[in-house]
Amino acid sequence: TPNHIRTSVDRTPFHADYIINHTDEKLRDDIRLMKRFMKGIGTYGAEPDVRGFSGYLCELITIKYGGFLWAVRRAAQWKVGTTVFIEEKGEPMKGPLVFYDPVDKNRNVASAVHEDTLSRFISACKDYLENPDRRFFFPNKRTAPPAEELMAEWKQRDTGLLLLTFDRPDIIPENLHAQVWKSQYAVEKKLNSYGFEVLRAEHGEDEKKVSLLFELSSFTLPALFTHDGPPVHVETAEGFLEKWMDNEFGRPFIADGRWRVVSRRPFTDAAEMISAEVHHAGLGKAIDPASMSIYSQEDAVKKADPVMLAQLFNPLMPWEF
Amino acid sequence: TPNHIRTSVDRTPFHADYIINHTDEKLRDDIRLMKRFMKGIGTYGAEPDVRGFSGYLCELITIKYGGFLWAVRRAAQWKVGTTVFIEEKGEPMKGPLVFYDPVDKNRNVASAVHEDTLSRFISACKDYLENPDRRFFFPNKRTAPPAEELMAEWKQRDTGLLLLTFDRPDIIPENLHAQVWKSQYAVEKKLNSYGFEVLRAEHGEDEKKVSLLFELSSFTLPALFTHDGPPVHVETAEGFLEKWMDNEFGRPFIADGRWRVVSRRPFTDAAEMISAEVHHAGLGKAIDPASMSIYSQEDAVKKADPVMLAQLFNPLMPWEF
Questions:
Q1: pLDDT confidence tier of residue B233, bands split at 50, 70 and 90
Q2: Cβ contacts (< 8 Å) between B262 and chain A: which residues?
């Protein structure tokens, strides 16, 4: 019985039974529509790189609300933190979306759904209700503006641009895309931690390379910053004071109970920082930092995929192309 | 009896009695030494602008540890959050330093002591034990380097400088200094909230003016930044999307469950920001924003008190002059 379910392989036949026993032909048409919608807006889990809704979850959402349009109407009202169940609610669980598995009440069918994927789905449902359009199911391909136009737009924005490319590892697409996401987040975190403010990031790939593209509020930073030391009363304060006593930019001073000192930033140039720090940035395992090439500013505009660059400068949803 | 104490006026005779009954001539000499030390290092509450140790608190600390040097030895081990009592510990209280009043056990004699004043006292005690020196009690006056030297030092630092002067209000010194501190903190907060990174701040005054001096990592900021909107699922998200739909720097996008947009900073110049925002910055009540003059960069170097500028670039403790 479902009470003894242990693994996803154990569970699969129960899932199939549940769907068959709770749908008629009309509802199965609506499920197909829901899956097409999820694919079109880029939230379907089976698609690469979305951290999204599985096929089974699409089926359950449609069953729960009795059809595609009813489901879209309800989901347009969802919030991050929404809890849904059909048969029975199990133990309290946390996540952007909690959807209790009707055949295993202590499992969250939506555990893979990222907060931003859920937000996109909610937003798409709202937009669809206002303006139902074929593009939600069959989005157009975004076309790239001419190269000169992108260069002019970048110059007008006057921002920093950093393009990193890596050899594409020979692994299955789902795994690759998870690792590209992880790498994008890791580099973004590094940039922010060194004071480079990331405005937006995009990633992409072709047969040979994976690319990470970052727009920064500025490619370079001012020379000086404040560096926080230990609280005044701790043992290690002595070492900090000794180290900084002859500091070129002034002695340590007390701020909010800690020693603080004005000093030179370790890196004022984003490319130099990444070149030095990428090896311990926490990239995806299969992404080899030794294969990295760095393209900065104009070079990044010239080298980046124009569609990725257009999406960086003006992020559109798939149904808005 | 002390149990019925209500106001500080009620309390004063009990304080005087307590001190007289718990000191001999030797200990009273040590109390004078402690007060001289506190004045010298700039942590004595009766001195303007220190948010520091009252005379009564100096007396109690000396009594508690049985003399000046014993007190300094113990205070060198204090931490932010230290609790001290002589007779009896009252209700738990919070603060950088809690010193239970021996004649009113639910009062903290050290409630006015700021975290940074306490930290300075701890640090001075450590330094004094390593190198007992007359300067802890009678500090030298800091001398100003020549003007050209300060200008050269600023150019080498390549930082932003902002000097604000206000008419000196005709109020008692203690009140004035509290208001100058409040104003310094308020402007610092404004600067940081608009993205101008404050490295250090100093304040000063003469017969006619009070001055606030800020060193910034940069006087100007890059043109674009990210502006966070509401969570995707809330009602007000509609308004945010409508407002930004035709944004020059790209449509809103979803990040961490919220709408976010790349847009132009409201202010890229520190002086322009302060000029526009000073009226609702939360200055001290008696400090009139209408009397403000702003001096930027070179002008700030030329106009600022050279000692204040030297202290900004290289903060020294009074016993280090």
A1: confident
A2: 199-200, 215
Residue A139: partners with Cβ closer than 8 Å, 6 or more residues away: A40, A41, A318, A319, A321
CB crowding A250-285: b at 16 or more within 10 Å, else e: bbbbbbebbbbbbbebebbebbebbeebbeebebbe
Query: Which of A159, A236, A238, A254 best tests the B interface by mutation, with the highest count of B CBs <10 A?
Result: A254
Residues B176-223 pLDDT 10s = 888 898 899 999 999 999 999 999 999 999 999 999 999 999 999 999
Q: Does an H or E element contain B278, and which?
A: none
What is d(CA B97, CA B122) in angstroms, rounded to the nearest whole number? 11
Alpha-carbon gap, residue A219 to A222, rounded angstroms: 10
**B103, containing H or E segment:** none
Rounded to the nearest angstrom, the minimum Cα separation between A293 and chain B is 26
A78 touches chain B (CB under 8 A): yes
CA A100 to chain centre: 24
Contacts with B123 from chain A: Cβ below 8 Å: 232, 254
Apex B299 CA angle, B298 and B302, nearest 5: 90
* Single-letter amino acid, residue B218: S
Is the CB of residue A263 less than 8 Å from the CB of residue A224? Answer: yes
CATH code linked to domain B2-136:
1.10.1410.30
Which of A157, A234, A253 lies nearest to residue B200, judging by beta carbons? A253
- Per CATH, is B224-264 categorized as 3.30.70? yes
Reported ipTM: the value is 0.84
Q: What DSSP element (H or E) covers B200? A: strand B198-205
Task: Indicate which of A82, A199, A241, A246 best probes the interface with B, i.e. most B CBs within 10 Å of its own CB.
Answer: A199
Whether the CB-CB separation of B118 and B50 falls below 8 Å is answered with: no
Tell whether B129 is within 8 A of chain A (Cβ): no
Contact A61, A114 (CB under 8 A): no
Query: Residue B223: its chain A contacts at CB < 8 A?
Result: 157-159
- B78, amino acid identity: W
| The domains spanning A147-220+268-315 and A224-264 adopt the same CATH topology | yes
Specify whether the CB–CB gap between A104 and A269 falls below 8 A: no
Range of lowest pLDDT (A231-240, A277-286, A299-308):
A231-240
Counting one residue from chain A and one from chain B, the pairs whose CB atoms sit within 8 A come to: 128
> So where are chain B's domains?
2-136, 147-220+268-320, 224-264
Side-chain half-sphere exposure of B4, counting CA atoms within 13 A: 1
For chain A, the residue count is 321
CATH superfamily placement of domain A147-220+268-315: Poly(A) polymerase predicted RNA binding domain (3.30.70.590)
Please judge whether B254 and A226 are an interchain contact, meaning their C-beta atoms are less than 8 angstroms apart: no
Fold of the domain spanning B147-220+268-320: Alpha-Beta Plaits (3.30.70)
Q: What was the pLDDT predicted at A47?
A: 60
> Which backbone phi and psi does B166 adopt, to 5 degrees?
-135, 155
